[in-house]
Amino acid sequence: MTSFKAFYLPFSAQNAERCLCLPHNLCDQHSRGLGRTLGALVFAYSLWTARTKWDFSSPQIANVILFSISIIILSASRSGKIFSDQDYWRATSFYSPVFDRFSIPKLTRPTNGTFWDTEPPSIWRVRTGLEADTAWDSIGSNITPIVITAADVLALGKDPATAVKVPPELNHGSDAYIAGMDVFHHLHCLDKLRREISYKHYHEAKEGPYPGSELHEAHINHCLDVLSQALRCTGSVDMVTFNWVEGHRMPQPDFNNRKVCRDFDALRDWTVESGIDGNTFFKVANKPPPDAVVVPELKPQHHGR
C-alpha cells in the first residue's frame, strides 16, 4: 500500500505550492506541476474558509470536498497519471539542477547482451583504434562542463567557498560555478579500463612496463571502486532468463533483456549545447585565482602494490 505523508503548513503565497499530499519518496522533491496545482487549491480553500461565514453544515461539506480530492489524487497516483517521468528521475536521484533545466526523455530499449560480437561489430567492443577512441571520448572525457549556482552547490552538500567558480572572462556572472554530471565520469572510467586492457598500446610509452606509475595505478583503482559503487547504488533488478543452447550442457543466460532508460543521447546533446566549451574553460582556468581557497591534496596510502 502506498505510504502517504501530509504537509500542513501556515498558509501563504510562498508555501502554498508545498501544501500537498504525495507519496513520501516524492514529497522531498516538491513535484513542481502537481505541487503548484494542489498548493493553489489548498491556498484558495484557506482564504475561502477565513472569509466565509459558515453555517452548521459547511465544515462537513468542506471535509467531504477535501476527502474527495484526496481520493482522486490517490487513484490517479495508482494509475500512474500524476507523476511524470521527470518526477521519478528526481525521486531516484540526489539533488541535481539538471531536472529544472531539461526534461529527460524515457526510453525502453533492448540490451545488446550477446556473448559474441554482432555484425557489424559494436563500436563499444572495439579494443583499440581511432574510431573507438573518438566514440568513447564523445560520451565521456570530452563532455563539456555546465554552470551551476551557489544555491545548487549548497543543495549538493558542498561549500561554495571551495567550489571552483567560472572565470569572469567567460561572462557567466558572479554566481557561476563549474560542475559535471556523474554519468560522464563513469563512462570516462569505463573507457580508462578499456584502455588498460590494451596497456601496451595506450600507456607503455609514457608509463613504462605494466602496471605503470603509482599515479596511473591509483587512477585505475579509483575507477574500479567508483564503478562498483555506482552499480551497487542503482542495483538493477531487471530479470535475466536462461536458454538451453546448442553445445552447452548447462542453461545459458540470455542477456538480451529490455531496459527502461534515461535517453542518454538526448542528455548528452543538451549538455553539449548548454554547457561551457571544455577547451575554452581550461585554457582560462589553468591556475587558481588569488582569492581562491585551495584545499589540501589527500596523500597516497601505501598498502603494497
From TrEMBL:
InterPro entries tied to this protein: UstYa-like (IPR021765)
Gene Ontology terms: biological process: mycotoxin biosynthetic process
Record Pfam families: UstYa
Family statement: Belongs to the ustYa family.
Name of the protein in its database record: Tat pathway signal sequence
Organism encoding this protein: Setomelanomma holmii
